[in-house]
Amino acid sequence: MKSVTSFLGAFRDRFTYDVRHNVYLWFGVLWGIPVPCFSVAIHAVVAGEPLGIDLLLRHPWHLIFLLHPPIFGLVFGAMGTVRRNLERENERLIETLRGMAMTDPLTGLYNRRYLLDQLRHMVAASLRTRQPTAVVMFDLDGFKSVNDTQGHLAGDRVLRAVAASLQSATRQSDVLGRYGGDEFLMVVQGHRDGAALLAERAAEAVKRQTTMSISSGHAVAPSDGATPEELIGAADAMLATVKRSRREGRGSARGPQ
Description:
Helix content is 63%, strand content 11%. The protein is an alpha+beta fold and 257 residues long.
């Protein structure tokens, strides 16, 4: 039923017929041309009458056969339109699935899988070009208490707000995503000082827009590691030091330079 509806719908929209690219339409026209030719020729042979306009005037029912090319063109053109619409719908579906495969559904940021894939490519490029690539690992301070005292829905709202705050502090070339739980990971091209400055700016944005504090640790390839796992491990180790210092009331959200 859906196929019939789509087919009939192709006739209702005159702009669906792209006469330059709808090969189905032209195929229908070409397929319909022999019908009036054969009908007139056969009638002329059987009746012994000469071919010409007079034959059509004397036997106007041949005009029905003359309508076959445009009718076939419209019918086949509608089939081409339906196919084109299906192809576009499939493209949109594939694009949606691709977005779901690389996006965290809660925050709208990139997910862990996509982050690791991008980090792997950027680290490989960094080793080839000797241009540093840095990772910054963020972790919300006191997020567990939000879930425990206000509930998980409130925690989800906080995560979305933090994600938006971090995104406002990133540059176009940076890759930001949710690594897991209340952890976020940013991959940037640049030196250690630039990564530390970016982490500080992101922490200030989170504090300003959500009143939450966030700690961070960073690592730079190739000095801190030559693989994504080594870089994340180094950034996570710095983050743990920063978190411990914050708990003891001595450190800052940025951690050691």
